[in-house]
Amino acid sequence: MAFLPAAPGQPHPVKITLADLPQVEPNVFLSETPSFVTPRIQVPPRPSPADMRAKRAQERFEAGQRLLTAGENDGARREFDAALDILLTAPEDMPDRIKVEKKLEQLVAAIHRHDVNGLGAGDDQPGWDKAPLEDILELTFPVDPGLKVKVKEQAIATVSQLPLEVNDAVLSYINYFSSEKGRRTLLAGLKRAGRYRPLIMRILAAEGIPQELIYLAQAESGFLPRAVSHKAATGMWQFVKWRGNEYGLMQTAHADDRLDPEKATRSAARHLRDLYEQFGDWYLAIAGYNCGPGCVERAVERTGYADFWELRARGVLPRETANYVPIILAMTIMAKNARAYGIEDIEIDAPLQYETLVVSAPTHLALVADLAEHSLSDLRELNPALLRNIAPAGYELRVPDGTRTTVISDLEAIPESRRASWRVHRVAEGETLASIAKRYRTSASSILAANGRQPAETGDKLIIPAPPQPVKAIKSSKHGSTKKATAARNTRSSRASTRPVRKGGVGAAALR
Q1: pLDDT confidence of residue 225
Q2: 171: buried, middle or exposed (CB in 10 Å: 19+, 13-18, 0-12)?
Q3: What is the pLDDT of residues 436-485, one digit of tens each?
Q4: Which residues contact 447 (CB under 8 A, 6 or more apart)?
Q5: Domain at 354-464: CATH code
Q6: CATH for the 134-341 domain, from 3.40.30.10, 1.10.287.1080, 3.40.50.11260, 1.10.530.10
């Protein structure tokens, strides 16, 4: 409306009220930040050196997988070696090095699976593992003064069939297992224990042995059924040959009972019970398990003391034995007070579940794995006592739970004289007879003849008349899946030493 009065003779200006103004909807976009103030593209953080190294290793590993699928085994081996080399050469002081180590463990396990799920049906020996704690038994570690009061309170409050004494020797190993290196070793054993814990606990209870002595197996082998020490002690419970024979663990050209977790656990429990009856003290019994009852007897006779800690203080026991009991006590206290040591949430391995069958002819584990539709590594894990991949006639073979009936039925289609070399293959989409024949190193015509010359379709099972492979026993790491994989597996088993396994390499020879 006009601000000045109207001229004479002019009509007076019309007054406009607010009610006459149009209604305007508020602009919601006026409250937003302009696009030129906030960038539309978020720049991702730059990957760390550890991330980049892990990515490069994964790329080489995937390249190896592609070559393996194409039947180029030598090329696959080179790529797998290169992948592990990228991780093994990472600087010790690299930031986020834990990422590199986790990737290394992941790839080593994957390569090992490729290795033992071999394409041929050779009867190579399975590999051996190094006892993880072997190298620390003769070492001493510092004591953290801050641990003493806390650990003593934990020991008093802990329910245990095994007496839990706390002193500087025990504290030093609790300190070690709380360190980064020791923690890795401890956790690896606790994780692997899940496979055998129900079995071990059942046997210890049946034999009247304290349940806490399950940690003796962790100290001996880290729950590795094929662990071997520099003294030729073998298996999860580390029996030397003559002591194993004494408790019914026998050896043949085909199998070694010391490698059987169930048989070895039963024998270990009976041996420990005999030692306790001899000495009347669990610490002396444990010491006798390590160095032999005669060694403990002589120490008692020399000093007149039937007390482990007194014998230890007087230096009349081997250093390895003097540290052996404190290690078991340290692991027991930590495992029973898992929350206090940050180990309560680890994901333990599932218990092994299996059925048994008796094979009527020499039978290759790879054939049984085919019929059960499991991996060869699964069959090896269930049958660690076999010295080669062929189960002899009459052998009580363990197969994955729920597969016994199928395996027995399908084995009937394979001539007994061919079960040590032939295979069964389920046809995958896109596969041809030529590609399958190349994979198993046989001919398409042989496959057709073995299957009644019927065309194969996706999902069909084909009998593969694979030729017998020459026996190539593994004598060193260079005969395993790869040199790098063997080195990495040894490193993973025991960070305290990089010494090679003394009794054979780790893995089979699938990538030949």
Answers
A1: 94
A2: buried
A3: 998 888 999 999 999 887 777 888 899 999 887 654 443 333 334 444 55
A4: 433, 436, 437, 462, 463, 464, 465
A5: 3.10.350.10
A6: 1.10.530.10
